[in-house]
């Protein structure tokens, strides 16, 4: 039926449905935002009173009820550094191989993608058992920061690879054709054109990987250990912030105040690292695009 100028384009029933759908969407968004604000507010309320320079620099005392989390912050950052140092080159390299050198219908590529999808859903405790058996026992690394970081790298690789691959595949094929027509080598095209264009996908994978690595507890209990002293090398055992929070809240009577403060520091670290990663990637993207 063709609408005439005398007939409304949207009937009252359709307008009501649109309004109801809009209200529902806003309610869902408000609910999610409220949960985040409530969580952050609860942690701030209980933890901000414990924060001080001494809390950030001193070692724990009295099973964590007193003192600070200085060695634990150092251990957490070292574990995260090992994780990203191992996962980034492997993840980006594998994503480039799958996106640029393997056709989507290729059997080997499909097997790799299916394996990555399965690995992404494996529980962290299974990764912890694998890391303990392979890195700690078989390779002789023992309970160490290196073992924990490499185990976390295995956990974040599927997320990093798949997000980077999707980012590369979302780059228009005309970019590749134009670069080839100009006589630009495939390597130069990849480094200066495709990877910068796929940077949003890489950032998403990086942020998700960092978030999972910082929040991981089960896998690190089996690999990096439980020791809360200052590590002197990557072969030393080290307690991460997530393990420290778990220990204070579950095993230490009277440890809740410091557990909340440690959780607040963990959230701040996550926000700062994500902001720095996004800013660095944006700067790199801007510079690379104009230096082809």
Automatic annotation (TrEMBL):
CDD domains listed in its UniProt record: TM_PBP2
One Gene Ontology term, aspect cellular component: plasma membrane
GO biological process: phosphate ion transmembrane transport
Domain of life where this protein originates: Bacteria
Single GO MF descriptor: phosphate transmembrane transporter activity
Keywords assigned: Cell membrane, Membrane, Transmembrane, Transmembrane helix, Transport
Pfam families with a match to the protein in the record: BPD_transp_1
Assigned protein family: Belongs to the binding-protein-dependent transport system permease family. CysTW subfamily.
NCBIfam families, sorted: 3a0107s02c (TIGR00974)
Protein name listed in UniProt: Phosphate transport system permease protein PstA
Organism, scientific name: Gimesia aquarii
